[in-house]
Design goal:
The chain is α/β, with parallel strands linked by helices. The protein has a single domain, classed as 3-Layer(bba) Sandwich (FAD/NAD(P)-binding domain). Helix content is 20%, strand content 30%. The chain contains three helices and eight strands. Strands 3-4-5 form a three-stranded parallel β-sheet, with helices on one face. A three-stranded antiparallel β-sheet has the order 6-7-8, with no helix packed on it. The chain has a two-stranded antiparallel ribbon with strand order 1-2. A hairpin with a 2-residue loop joins strand 1 and strand 2. Keywords: FAD, Flavoprotein, Oxidoreductase, Peroxidase, Redox-active center.
């Protein structure tokens, strides 16, 4: 973002979880702010599984797994949001801002999220 001729770095935001709360958080962030670098982490391989999805499936109300999604990841990736499934956030240090993750390929990975 350029404000008064000064270039400002994007503020990095992390959203943990791709269910209802994560979905709504990203919608609000995209609506309210222009200069964000948003990354959403989901522990599972299925992004946006509705809480009631299993019940709907067992009742034969839905037959396709995609019918129990709140959103398609493309809805956010098209707007520049990084969507990382199979990335379980196991620890967050709010003061120093690193995240500790568990992924299928890496047992522990530290990512430092800095704000300017």
């Amino acid at each position: 973002m350029i404000l008064g001729g000064v270039l400002y770095a994007k503020t990095k935001v992390v959203v943990v979880g791709a269910s209802h709360g994560g979905h709504q958080a990203i919608l609000e962030l995209l609506h309210r702010y222009d200069n964000l670098d948003i990354t959403m982490f989901e522990a599972g391989d299925f992004v946006s599984f509705m809480s009631c999805g299993m019940e709907l499936y067992l009742e034969n109300s839905v037959t396709d797994v995609n019918d129990v999604r709140n959103f398609e990841p493309k809805q956010f990736t098209d707007q520049g949001v990084h969507v990382l499934n199979n990335h379980e956030v196991t620890k967050i240090d709010a003061d120093k801002k690193p995240l500790q993750l568990r992924t299928p390929l890496v047992v522990k990975l530290l990512i430092t999220i800095t704000t300017n």
